Amino acid sequence: MNGSRRIRVLSWLGAAVLLCGLAASPALLAGNVLRDADRQAEVAQPLVYRPETPFDAQQAAQAMAPGSATIRGVVFHRLDRFGNYALLPPNPVRTMEGIDVFLYPATPHMVEFMKLLDKHVYRKLRMPIVPQNRRPKQVLFDDAALDYRKVVKSDQYGRYTFSDLKPGRYIVYSAAYVTSNFNVSVPVGSSEVSYGIYGTDSVTHYGLEERTRRTDIEYRNYIDIKSDGQVVEVESLFKPVY
Predict the structure, then answer these.
(1) Taking the CA of residue 105 as centre, how many other CA atoms within 13 Å lie in the half-sphere pointing to its CB?
(2) For 51-92, what is the HEC assignment?
(3) SS3 98
(4) pLDDT (tens digit, 9 = 90+) per residue, 66-93?
(5) Is the pLDDT of residue 158 over 90?
(6) Quick check: 12 pLDDT over 70?
(7) Where are the domains of the chain?
């Protein structure tokens, strides 16, 4: 009788422990999910970098004073039909119409901005593997620089022109994206082929699947004007941004 009672007591205690565990598990699970959500939110927040050199509006205004020089250029890319960058033939040159092209004076503030882009944003060729779950990075310049830029739009042949410039160094920048549509071969099923007394073999069947890929591309470079009246010609080859 006592043994039976002890078994019932132990069974009751075990059930109580189990119920407590079940009651506590949602809270524990919620804590884990919340921590995961916090980590994801932290990873999604970009790291922002800004030039330490202050923007000098007077210097920028002097650099953008009217002159008689001109920059003539053409915007184009060499992406293949899969959205990959290919410099060598047979991949053709593709000019781009209606692209906004920006010109900034190469003040110390903007030069540091360009250096920060190279350091923090753009993937180096010697490091082709991008770590997963890496926080995005942004490089921002002073908004006041927007008041001292020029903007033009490329024509139907991809050409653009900046006129009335004085001698000095400038930054030409533009960004766009290319959408590529292509088909890839994917497995859609399999079947067995019988060879009689020699056995059977499995054959995989393939079909075509349409894919769409967006490739962000950009051009940025320093352009030097050495004398009044000079016409500088530029071929602005857009490259993918990784």
Answers:
(1) 24
(2) CCCCCCHHHHHHHCCCCCEEEEEEEEECECCCCCECCCCCCC
(3) coil
(4) 999 999 999 999 888 777 777 666 678 8
(5) yes
(6) no
(7) 1-45, 48-240
Beta bridge partners of 79: 85
More confident residue, 146 or 134: 146
Half-sphere exposure for 239 (CA within 13 Å, toward CB): 8
- State which CATH number among 2.170.190.11, 3.10.620.30, 2.60.40.10, 3.30.10.20 fits the domain covering 48-240: 2.60.40.10
Q: Mean pLDDT, to the nearest integer, of 101-125?
A: 87
What residue type is 60 in one-letter code? A
Contact 76, 236 (CB under 8 A): yes
- As a dihedral over the C-alpha atoms of residue 120, residue 123, residue 124, residue 129, rounded to 10 degrees, the angle is 120
> Is the predicted pLDDT of residue 215 greater than 70, yes or no?
yes
Instruction: Give residues with Cβ within 8 angstroms of 80, minimum separation 6.
Output: 86, 91
Task: Give CA–CA dist 12/16, Å, rounded.
Answer: 6
Greatest C-alpha distance within the chain: 113
Distance of CA 200 to the CA centre of its chain: 49
Structure confidence at residue 133 (pLDDT): 54
Q: Which residue has the tokens 């050495």?
A: 226
Between residues 156 and 29, which one has the greater pLDDT? 156
| Contact call for residues 165 and 70 (beta carbons, < 8 A) | yes
